[in-house]
Amino acid sequence: MPxxxxxxxxxxxxxxxxxxxxxxxxxxERVSLxxxxxxxxxxxxxxxxxxxxxxxxxxxxxxxxxxxLRTAGARARAHRPRVLITKSAEDDxxxxxxxxxxxxxxxxxxxxxxxxxxxxxxxxxxxRTPVRRTAAGEHDLLAPDTxxxxxxxxxxxxxxxxxxxxxxxxxxxxxxxxxxxADRLRIQSILGREGxxxxxxxxxxxxxFDRVRRSxxxxxxxxxxxxxxxxxxxxxxxxxxxxxxxxxxxxxxQQGARPLRPDAAQVLRGAxxxxxxxxxRGLDAPSTEALLIRRxxxxxxxxxxxxxxxxxxxxxxDGPAAVIGFAALGPAAGLAASSGLIRLHASAFRDDSVxxxxxxxxxxxxxxxxxxxGVESWIRELVTQLEQARGLxxxxxxxxxxxxxxxxxxxxxxxxxxxxxxADPEARVTTLAEARTAVLLTEIVxxxxxxxxxxxxxxxxxxxxxxxxxxxxxxxxxxxLRAHGEVSAAASALSIHPNTLRYRLRRIESVLGISLSxxxxxLLLELQLAAVPPAQA
Length: 537
What we know:
The protein is of the alpha+beta class. Helix content is 45%, strand content 16%. β16, α15 (408-420) and β17 form a beta-alpha-beta unit.
């Protein structure tokens, strides 16, 4: 087997029996795997030449899966995939017979497993560097190429439990093999690739996450049979120490049918340190492809070598492109967790699209699109799907057309300008041209806010008057200006008599030394009120 490939058996171990089950293996589990793709039944006819060695078939029933296998099997042996992963392989004799006849291994994916989580995992496993092993065949945890899956397997073997490694948002990064004693929390976490919300709420209520964040100690969570939750140990994964430490995730050890070994907590603490180095290594040293993508979006250095990007990412060198940015209308963690789903939908819309998470936003490049209206229609559909499937409210901004790959970074800046402006609840998908007023006003206000020399010192007098007289002239001014100078409307909004409002307006003019009947004074006051926070005593 080539040294740069993993085997089918190793892939199945990484996926775990909870997620994937081997149905047929005509050539055994030592089949070497180095490439992967995801597609639908109809995509096969559009692909010429060699197919990837692992193929994830989405949206196929048993009839379509059997037909796909026989069609792929008609190709030369060197051009066939070696493994097919599908949800339609369970106990269907025709699908199993087709797999045996054409010599393609058949793996059934659990019906509740999510393609947007499984595909990145398979791709990471297939394209990774195989873990170094000692002469005895064990994982070498001191090797520079040790990964989280290898670490999980070693810890499981050394403790007698089942391991999962999660990021700070409780998304599963890696795990060891499960057995029949895996509890509901572990099974659902692995299937969904994130902890079930109801269990996470319970763990928070018990103070588990707070204890892990505050201390390096291993936390012992007792079993709760009424919740189908077995005993487990958990420890935080950190980078650095003391006040400057950064939480990188958590390492969980579930007890199975037998008690954990006496030194399990000590092993777990050591494993957390190793996991911290592995995760930090990934954060510090992204792949060449990742660096190219981030540079393409303007997030890693200046300029982009177009020939390198075209060659590495398989992008068309010319033709109009579109850049889309997604931002959460709420906690940003939800959008980060859904970046895989966005990537999956983007790849389905355009198979050479590029998706990247930068900060708390997700960006998509759609190269050589055919219709701006088609791109915007797809984005609106995706925004709706994220809300319906994940309960995630997002807004999207589109920059199109983008004249070539060298302009992608500038287009991302344009998208950010829209996403930095106040959100219009009625316009979840928009462009800079459509949001020009809000964008420019936001940038003008931010410019004033960041430049103390542009702050009007007279506004401090208004704040001082409010404090010393227990008044609220600032709120009165804001409300009056938002009502476009309509006294009756502003008085109604403030729940005061119009004559009381007129008195307050005269007091504002006196304190500030301006005239609210002067358009220039009104414009300046409105900008200052928006940009300059109330002065503190």
